[in-house]
Design a protein that fits this description.
There is one protein chain. This protein is α/β, with parallel strands linked by helices. The chain has one domain: TIM Barrel. The protein is 44% helix and 18% strand. An eight-stranded parallel barrel has the order 1-2-3-6-7-12-13-14, surrounded by seven helices. The longest helix has 20 residues. It starts with a helix and ends in a 6-residue tail after the last helix. The mean pLDDT is 94.
């Protein structure tokens, strides 16, 4: 699966993933009103509005980016209808030829982790039929319960040609409370986890990179540079660009010399671009056009910062 992502990045010359993390405040009122008129003030109407919003964003940007990353919590909060919108978003993204990274941050033990892995990346059997429930291509995984919480995902990656991105150094301000703690007074915990991720992916490599990737926040560029050197076969998902403060100049160290090795996420910086002063001219009516403009600006920023074109 990592080779599919790399091929898409090379074809579109954009190591960019759009975070589809819709909030009601991002959705134009006309879309929400139309859905409420159809379904009433219900969870179904919110889910319908979310999907309509996502669909418009995808229609406007799918030719520019290789992947999208829906954050499941933004859908789960609206119950079963929200999860149905999540699944419809995944399916529509696949119709548009995009790689889908399910931002689920799952991690548990034994059969529970196995169930998460099967539900999101693998398959289940119903009678004589094999069904893929959610069908993401990648999923984010929390490793802090240990290897037995990650192994079921790795097994499914091997069986179904899927991938994972393991949380190593996250972009949030308080991540250091635990992730920066030194083990035996020497190695920071995040670095130790990163080394484990590199090992876990050894037999899942497709060329230079493994299907077992890492999440490292753009807000910690020096740590990203350090981890890039320690994980030469690990593809990096980089959250924290734009709204969280990360800029193109911060990202150089996350990439390898050929311009590969990382994909950068922007969520509200793209999907709610029309609310920013820089894209205010588009207005709420043309929110999807504003999102497209934000993607083009992000692409220019990243390419300008790393000083090279993207090639396979």
């Amino acid at each position: 699966m990592i080779q599919k992502l790399i091929a898409q990045i090379a074809a579109k010359k954009a190591p960019i993933v759009i975070g589809l993390d819709p909030q009601l405040s991002f959705i134009p009122q006309r879309i929400l009103d139309a859905s409420i008129q159809q379904s009433g003030e219900t969870l179904e109407s919110v889910a319908g509005a979310i999907y309509a919003f996502n669909k418009a964003i995808l229609d406007a940007t799918a030719d520019l980016v290789p992947a999208v990353k829906p954050q499941i919590a933004m859908y789960e909060q609206y119950g079963i209808p929200g999860l149905m919108a999540y699944k419809k978003t995944i399916d529509y993204a696949h119709q548009k030829g995009l790689v889908v990274i399910g931002d689920i941050k799952r991690g548990d033990i034994g059969s529970t982790s196995e169930a998460y892995a099967k539900g999101h990346l693998g398959t289940v059997k119903v009678g004589g039929k094999v069904i893929a429930p959610f069908e993401e291509d990648f999923a984010t995984v929390n490793p802090y319960l240990g290897y037995d919480g990650v192994k079921p995902f790795i097994d499914v990656c091997r069986e179904c040609d899927k991938g994972i991105f393991v949380l190593v150094k996250t972009s949030n301000p308080s991540s250091g409370e635990f992730q920066d703690r030194r083990i035996d007074g020497e190695v920071p915990l995040y670095e130790w986890v990163g080394e484990k991720v590199e090992v876990w992916g050894e037999d899942l490599r497709e060329g230079q990179y493994s299907n077992v990737g890492a999440v490292i926040g753009a807000t910690y560029p020096e740590m990203g540079r350090q981890l890039r050197r320690k994980m030469p076969h690990t593809f990096i998902l980089v959250p924290g660009y734009g709204a969280q403060g990360g800029k193109g100049k911060d990202l150089v160290g996350f990439f390898d010399d050929d311009g590969m090795g990382a994909i950068v996420n922007s969520s509200r910086g793209i999907i709610a671009a029309y609310k920013q002063e820089a894209y205010a001219k588009y207005g709420e009516e043309n929110f999807a056009d504003a999102a497209r403009a934000a993607v083009l600006d992000m692409q220019e920023d990243i390419q300008g910062a790393i000083g090279r074109r993207f090639c396979s």
